[in-house]
Amino acid sequence: MRATYVFDALRAHYRARGLTYRDVARKLKLSEATVKRIFSTRDCTLSRLEALCGVAEVDLSDIARGRPRTQNLVTALTEKQEQEIVDDIRLLVAAVCALGNFRFETIISEYRISAPQCIALLARLDKIGFIELQPDNRYRLLVARTFHWIPDGPIMRWLRQQTPDYFDHAFSGPGETLRVVNVRVSAEARSALLARVEQLAQDYADQHTADAWLPFEQTHALSLTLAVRNWEPPPFKALRRDANLR
């Protein structure tokens, strides 16, 4: 297998996932110049090459066996596809586990899902185009780096129904925090702050990818909720002299 093929294949996988050299460098804690040099010289250690493959969520053996992926990955599902997933709680669990890069063995050990059921669920996700099912109950996630659920789609509506349980918590454990900040800022500052919020969300996603290769027991489940909107508590609104005052 020629080095040129390997690195060209990796580039194709990065493009399909919407990843730039800068993204790869940040995930591997390298400089962008170092990553560019690796791809221009096509020269690096085997462990570094495996790490580069890990960023693309593809095994080196997969690259050796197949052709580079060139089609774009999905950034969102259709409303019908989301409805199919949310209508079956086990299918929703399987989809979330896939996003979390759970191995087949981990899914069936962590949830009341039998091996045959899990195979059937993964097959349904494959048909939807969410994953690519592979031999030995392995799969490849087919969603892009920018993947998101439909803002007011079936899954986000289902998630909003779970908010009472989410917030019925002290948020005082390790790695937990809850902050509510009410501010009045300019339109320019609002845009800049939103960009930083989006970057924070991406930082969590990137760290998730970077730690995906750790043993399951060495990782901790965290759920990050980011919400920004024009809002005032109803009791405050009730005291308003002018309901249109902002």
Q: What is the secondary structure topology, with strand pairs?
A:
Elements lengths: L2 H14 L4 H8 L3 H10 L4 H10 L4 H6 L13 H8 L2 H11 L4 H7 L4 H14 L2 E4 L3 E4 L12 H8 L1 H5 L19 H24 L23 H5 L8
Antiparallel strand pairs: 1-2
Helix pairs in contact: 2-3, 7-9
Structural write-up:
This protein is mainly alpha-helical and 246 residues long. The protein folds into 3 domains: 3-65, Orthogonal Bundle (434 Repressor (Amino-terminal Domain)); 79-141, Arc Repressor Mutant, subunit A, CATH 1.10.10; 169-246, no CATH class. Helices cover 53% and strands 3% of the residues. The protein is built from 13 helices and 2 strands; from the N terminus they run H-H-H-H-H-H-H-H-H-E-E-H-H-H-H. Strand 1 (131-134) and strand 2 form a beta hairpin.
Largest sheet: 2 strands, antiparallel
What is the number of domains? 3
Series of secondary-structure elements, N-terminal to C-terminal: HHHHHHHHHEEHHHH
If strands are numbered along the chain, what order do they take across the biggest sheet? 1-2
Strand content: under 5%
Q: Share of helix among residues? A: 40-55%
Low-confidence stretches: none
Average pLDDT taken over every residue? 87
Computed over alpha carbons, the radius of gyration is 21 Å
